[in-house]
């Protein structure tokens, strides 16, 4: 048992959990903690937001590499990026944590909930909220909304940042030498990230 792997218990005494995973750095420590606490996680990779295709492939491969290492099943859901673009249409210029992100979370967690319900999982969760760049309440609202469409399904809103979770995320990422992306994932977050770094270089206060 590793240090900092605090005790975890799933709702309703469940052992199986479907974990929506956004990337290896966010999910590595979560998967490790679940396994070390005797849970049976399954990774659900559904991220139609990630742009471009090469970045999508890279992030997915890192998740697969770690899932295989710790012997956790991996579900590869088709990404349908065109549907994602339609979903967030009109919110291209919204800031991170704004309405575009709400729609993005709802789409990804909606698909996760549907898969969980169809495949005998009573509990699902996501790695999205562990990142300090994300609004945890916004993530949890999307998860709870998705769960409401399916009877008996529970969205587990565990705060992965607590009990040393943030530090563990950093140490597992370092130990596993995960590929660490520089932007959230979509085309618009990529543009915003480039613009921030150009502003920084030019010594201009960046607009977020
Ligand atoms: S910034 Fe991140 S969460 Fe927000 S819409 Fe883009 S990919 Fe989704």
What would you say this structure looks like, in words?
The chain has helices spanning 24-36, 53-69, 81-87, 99-118, 136-147, 165-176, 187-202; strands at residues 16-20, 40-45, 74-76, 123-126, 154-155. It is an alpha/beta fold and 208 residues long. It has a single domain, classed as 3-Layer(aba) Sandwich (Rossmann fold), CATH 3.40.50. The chain has a 5-stranded parallel sheet with strand order 3-2-1-4-5, sandwiched between helices. The N and C termini lie far apart (41 Å). Bound molecules: iron/sulfur cluster. Iron/sulfur cluster (SF4) binds at residues 49, 96, 100-101, 104, 184-186, 188-189.
Could you give the topology of this structure?
Layout: E1 16-20, H1 24-36, E2 40-45, H2 53-69, E3 74-76, H3 81-87, H4 99-118, E4 123-126, H5 136-147, E5 154-155, H6 165-176, H7 187-202
Parallel strand pairs: 1-2, 1-4, 2-3, 4-5
The structure holds iron/sulfur cluster.
List its traits.
208 residues, alpha/beta, Rossmann fold, five-stranded parallel β-sheet, 7 helices, 5 strands, 47% helix, 10% strand, globular, binds iron/sulfur cluster
What is the compact description of this entry?
It is built from seven helices and five strands, in the order βαβαβααβαβαα. With 208 residues, the chain is α/β, with parallel strands linked by helices.
Small molecules held by this entry: iron/sulfur cluster
Structural class: alpha/beta
CATH-derived architecture: 3-Layer(aba) Sandwich
> What is the element string, with H for helices and E for strands?
EHEHEHHEHEHH
The tally of domains stands at 1
Main pleated-sheet profile: 5 strands, parallel
**Structure summary, number of beta strands:** 5
What is the radius of gyration computed over CA atoms, rounded to a whole number of angstroms? 17 Å
* CATH class annotation: Alpha Beta
Work out the helicity level: 40-55%
Low-confidence spans: pLDDT under 50, at least 5 residues?
A: none
What is the name of the CATH superfamily?
Answer: HUPs
Ends distance:
41 Å
Which geometry do the CA atoms define?
globular
Fold-level CATH name: Rossmann fold
Mean pLDDT: 94
Beta strand %: 5-15%
Strand order of the largest sheet: 3-2-1-4-5
Put simply, the count of helices is: 7
């Amino acid at each position: 048992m590793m240090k900092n792997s605090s005790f975890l218990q799933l709702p309703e005494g469940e052992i199986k959990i479907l974990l929506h995973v956004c990337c290896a750095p966010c999910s590595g420590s979560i998967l490790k903690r679940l396994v070390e606490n005797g849970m049976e996680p399954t990774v659900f990779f559904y991220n139609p937001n990630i742009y471009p295709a090469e970045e999508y492939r890279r992030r997915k491969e890192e998740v697969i590499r770690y899932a295989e290492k710790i012997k956790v099943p991996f579900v590869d859901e088709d990404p349908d990026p065109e549907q994602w673009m339609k979903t967030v249409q009109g919110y291209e210029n919204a800031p991170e944590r704004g309405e575009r992100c709400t729609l993005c979370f709802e789409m990804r967690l909606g698909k996760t909930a549907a898969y969980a319900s169809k495949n005998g999982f009573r509990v699902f969760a996501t790695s999205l909220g562990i990142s300090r760049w994300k609004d945890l309440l916004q993530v949890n609202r999307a998860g709870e909304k998705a769960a409401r469409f399916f009877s008996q399904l529970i969205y587990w809103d565990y705060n992965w940042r607590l009990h040393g979770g943030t530090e563990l995320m950093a140490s597992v990422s370092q130990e596993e030498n995960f590929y660490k992306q520089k932007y959230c994932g979509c085309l618009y977050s990529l543009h915003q990230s480039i613009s921030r770094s150009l502003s920084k270089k030019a010594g201009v206060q960046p607009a977020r």
